[in-house]
Design brief:
The protein is about 30% helix and about 15% strand. An eight-stranded mixed sheet has the order 5-4-3-2-1-6-7-8. The radius of gyration is 18 Å and the shape is globular. The longest helix is centred in the first third of the chain and has 14 residues. By secondary structure, the protein is α/β, with parallel strands linked by helices. It starts with a strand and ends with a helix. It binds iron/sulfur cluster (SF4) (2 copies).
Amino acid sequence: MLISITEKCRMGCSHCIDDARPDSDKFMTLETFKKALAFNLKYDPSITITGGEPTEHPQFWEFMDIVAETLTFNKACSVVTNGMNLSDDDIPKVEALKEKCRGLIMWQVSSIRPYYPIRIDLDQKIFQRKDFTIARKIEKLECFGRATQHPEWIFQAKAPGCFNIRSLMRGTMSFSSAMLSLRSMNKFCTPQIAYDGSIKLGESTLCPRASHIDKRISVIELDLINFTCACPECHKLLDKLTPMYRAAIGEN
Ligand code: SF4
Ligand code: SF4
């Protein structure tokens, strides 16, 4: 499960499926973050902190301290970042956090030329650490946000990013079972808890809200089972699916 703590990002990539912007004022509150963390850990032992760019949240390090207090031996956290706000000066903070998390934290840095317009110095020591992985290529580009405006981007997705969670919800009728199945398939990117506590079924912040973590789980389950989406870009993908696959997510 992803927790998107902000929709702000100064990097300004033309391939941004989130349409994250430098002037965004969308930040998760501390109260929502605590609730999002509890919800995440109830259904999924792996936490992914993302954005926008998570380190642009003014309380990022405070939030990470709360994550550290919450992690136990069978849980783990990843932070997905563009690395812009990290430098060797942050090594003591990163080291202290790793200690508090008992090593159960990983950093995933995406800085791929020519996609990311502001270059970071990947030769810095912080990016050589064993708890940092550097993404060297873009695995899959979905047809969202600014990515749809770029003439050169080719979208590799064969189905909307929400396909797995939606078909599992309709098949199992249970959020716990759907999350268990996603983990067994090594699918960790959905659902996403957005900055305001709403639940989205696709990875992009542009995916519409399907439910909210403040609701009872039985209501969330019904919301997710009955969710349909009018996204025109995803409908181009849906149109390529067989009727059986469309029916599996309740789209005709
Ligand atoms: S792709 Fe990532 S780094 Fe680039 S603008 Fe979007 S959120 Fe920021
Ligand atoms: S826009 Fe709608 S159909 Fe597309 S991935 Fe997001 S939730 Fe799914």
